[in-house]
Amino acid sequence: MNDEFYELVDRAVDAVFIQDMYLLRAYPYFKNMNATKKQVREFIESDTAKNLALTISDLDAYIKGGSDREHDLLREAYGHLGKPKARKIRKYLHAILQDAVQYEIDRKPGRKKKRSK
Q1: Using CA atoms, how far apart are residues 18 and 114, in angstroms rounded to an integer?
Q2: Distance from chain centroid for Cα 30
Q3: Angle between helices 47-64 and 69-78 (to 10 degrees)
Q4: Residue 84 has pLDDT above 70, yes or no
Q5: Cα Rg for the chain, rounded, in angstroms?
Q6: Which terminus, N or C, of the chain has the lesser number of Cβ atoms within 10 Å?
Q7: Average pLDDT in the 50-69 region?
Q8: What is the pLDDT at residue 29?
């Protein structure tokens, strides 16, 4: 898979936070591009996916709440969203990673079984 998908993910994250637009569905994209299991594995292990996971973790901590210094910083960063919108964004970002993992599972190597006559 080329850098195009990584750019799409970055743009999708920007669009969801700035414009409240949910543009990317990863599984149909992988299927349409006939992505290989290796390509999807590279994405899952990439810095882009790790940053996505970190954002999800931050949103989880913001939603959970708290009164320590870390939660103060998270409230400052994500407070403008409100918790319902933060939950929706978290679910969307998680779906991108989940789609990649599911596509990788579905792309098991091997021959297709022949039908018996």
Answers
A1: 50
A2: 13
A3: 110
A4: yes
A5: 17
A6: C
A7: 91
A8: 94
Give Cα 53 to chain centroid, integer Å: 7
**44 inside domain:** yes
Residue 111 pLDDT > 60, yes or no? no
Segment 62-77 mean pLDDT: 86
Rounded to whole angstroms, how far apart are CA atoms 69 and 65? 11
Containing domain of residue 93, as a range?
Answer: 3-106
| pLDDT tens by residue, 32-43 | 999 999 999 999
Structure tokens at 117: 């006559």
Residue 51 is encoded by which pair of tokens? 């940053």
| Residue 90 within any structural domain of the chain | yes
Asked if 61 contacts 75 with a C-beta cutoff of 8 angstroms, the reply is no
**φ/ψ of residue 116, rounded to 5:** -80, 145
